[in-house]
TrEMBL record:
UniProt family annotation: Belongs to the HAD-like hydrolase superfamily. CbbY/CbbZ/Gph/YieH family.
Lineage of producing organism: Bacteria, Pseudomonadati, Pseudomonadota, Gammaproteobacteria, Cellvibrionales
EC primary class: hydrolase
EC number(s) given by UniProt: 3.1.3.18
Reaction(s) the record says it catalyses: 2-phosphoglycolate + H2O = glycolate + phosphate
Pathway in which the depicted protein is active: Organic acid metabolism; glycolate biosynthesis; glycolate from 2-phosphoglycolate: step 1/1
NCBIfam families with a match to the protein in the record: PRK13222.1-2
InterPro entries: HAD-like_hydrolase_sf (IPR050155), HAD-like_sf (IPR036412), HAD_2 (IPR041492), HAD_sf (IPR023214), PGP-like_dom2 (IPR023198)
Recorded superkingdom: Bacteria
Name this protein carries in UniProt: phosphoglycolate phosphatase
Signal peptide (residue range): none
Length: 235
């Protein structure tokens, strides 16, 4: 179990002002929050569709589908292709995973302000973890390829527990790993899944506006900050 030391001499930043104290643990969603992963996801979806004899969907369409996990992503790709889910879903997910294993790091970029925010938390000894609905198999390669894996001693994927976000269970599990309370924790995300999970776990949240919200207005969910650049919280 990971133990957390008290952060050292953190100034009165916007993060502290909004949170009301110094958080001991900050949990991050991955896709759409830390990382723009659509190029690799689109390549995997298109590879799967081509294997099934269909035309590719392309990056713009896939960007609108991302945010609900691999099963929903494949479901929407099959709907686009006119293939019945009952007959093709299992094969589609298998094909998607096969291709994504080869291209998950394709075109990856960090969103603006992410690296500065991670370094700010690291310098102030605030623990960080990734809590994503993405299959855990793909997470290490993505973090390593962007050079941010050292910030995250713990990562949790969508199939690691019986329930995934918007359930509170993944956040509760991670808080237990670090021996912290909901009052000491913070969730950062881009979608209703992230913000509903935080609400269910009684954890405060930061909401980013640039991610994969699937058309849902995330301003309707309670969060202590809503913005497009996490580095704004460092000042």
């Amino acid at each position: 179990m990971n133990q957390i030391s008290t952060p050292a001499n953190i100034s009165q930043t916007a993060l502290v002002e909004r949170f009301g104290d110094i958080p001991k643990l900050v949990m991050f969603d991955l896709d759409g929050t830390l990382v723009d992963s659509v190029p690799g996801l689109a390549a995997a979806v298109d590879g799967m569709l081509i294997d099934l004899g269909c035309k590719p969907a392309g990056v713009d369409l896939v960007r609108r589908w991302v945010g609900g996990g691999q099963w929903l992503l494949v479901q929407q790709a099959l709907e686009f292709a006119g293939l019945p889910e009952a007959d093709y879903l299992d094969a589609g997910v298998k094909g998607f995973r096969k291709h994504y294993a080869q291209c998950s790091d394709q075109g990856l970029t960090l969103f603006p302000g992410v690296k500065a925010f991670l370094e700010f938390l690291h310098q102030n000894r605030i623990a960080m973890a990734v809590v994503t609905n993405k299959p855990i198999d793909f997470v290490p390669k993505i973090l390593e390829s962007l050079g941010i894996d050292h910030y995250f001693p713990e990562t949790l994927g969508g199939e690691c527990l019986p329930e995934k976000k918007p359930s509170a269970l993944p956040l509760e599990h991670m808080m237990a790993r670090f021996s912290v309370t909901p009052e000491q924790s913070l969730m950062v995300g881009d979608s209703s899944n992230d913000l509903l999970a935080a609400q269910a776990a009684k954890v405060k949240s930061l909401a980013v506006t640039y991610g994969y919200s699937r058309g849902v207005d995330i301003s309707q969910f309670p969060s202590i900050w809503l913005g497009d650049d996490l580095s704004q919280l460092c000042a």
